[in-house]
Amino acid sequence: MKNNTCPKCNEKISPFYMKETCPHCKVNLLYYNLDERLKADAEQAQKEVDAVNKFVNIIKSSSIASPVLIVRLVLFFTPLASMCLPMYGDISLISLIMGIVNGSVEISSVIMPLISMALVVVLSLAVIISSLFSSTKTGLLRNMIFSAVNTIVFVALGVIIGGMGVGWYVTLVIYAIEIVLHPICNRVVKEKINN
Questions:
Q1: Of 73, 64, 58, 55, whose CA–CA distance to 182 is shortest?
Q2: What count of Cα atoms within 13 Å lies in the side-chain half-sphere of residue 111?
Q3: Is the pLDDT of residue 155 over 90?
Q4: Is residue 62 pLDDT above 70, yes or no?
Q5: What is the predicted pLDDT for the residue at 195?
Q6: Looking at residues 16-35, what average pLDDT do you find?
Q7: Are 78 and 184 in contact (CB under 8 A)?
Q8: CA pair distance 93, 82, nearest whole angstrom
Q9: Over residues 112-139, mean pLDDT
C-alpha cells in the first residue's frame, strides 16, 4: 500500500486502518497483485546477486586468474618482510617496534624512519586495493599511478633520511618489479576477459 492508498481503487485509507480489506472496494490489501510483487522482488534480488557476482569476478580476474597475477599479489605483501631487514642504518621495523615498546628508543629520534615505514604500509595497501580492480577500464593507469607515487615517496624519504640499508634497497627492487609487472598483468587480464 503506497501512501496509504488502495492498490486497486486508489482511494485514501487511514494510516490507522488495520483490516486486511479495502473499506472502499473490499479487495484484500495483503494479497492484491501478490504474484507481481513477488516477481518484482525476485527480479530485484537477482539484480543484487548479479552485482555481487560481477564484483567478485572483477576481483578474481584482477588478482588470481593466472600465475603472474598471483605472483604480483604475493609481491605486494613482501615489503612487510623487507622492512624487517635494516632500512636506515641499523633501524628495521622489528628493531623500531622493540625499541619503542622497551622504551630504549625515543620516538622523536626515529620519527622520519617511523614515518617512512608507516607510509610503506599505507601506500602498499593502496596499491593492493587498486590492483584488485585491474580488470576495470582504467585499471592499468590507476595501478601505475599508485605504484609510481608509492615509489617516489619511498625514494624521497630515503634520500631525506639517508643511511639506506639492505632492507631499503630490497623494498625499492620490489617496487620496481611491481611497476614492471603491472603492464604484463594488464595484458593477461585483457586476454582472460577476451577469451
A1: 73
A2: 2
A3: yes
A4: yes
A5: 67
A6: 89
A7: no
A8: 9
A9: 89
What percentage of the chain has pLDDT greater than the value 90? 50
Place of cell 530485484: 44
- AA identity, residue 74: V
pTM score, two decimals? 0.73
Q: What does the chain look like in DSSP terms, one character per residue?
A: -GGGB-TTT--B--TT---SB-TTT--BTTTTTHHHHHHHHHHHHHHHHHHHHHHHHHHHHHHTSSHHHHHHHHHHHHHHHHTTS-SBTTB-HHHHHHHHHHT-S-GGGGHHHHHHHHHHHHHHHHHHHHHTTTTSTTHHHHHHHHHHHHHHHHHHHHHHH--B-HHHHHHHHHHHHHHHHHHHHHHHHHHHHH-
Q: What contacts 94, CB < 8 A, 6 or more positions away?
A: 84
Name, in order, each residue with C-beta under 8 angstroms of 152's C-beta and a sequence gap of 6 or more. none
> Shortest CA distance to 114 belongs to which of 91, 148, 142, 130?
91
> What pLDDT sits at residue 134?
85
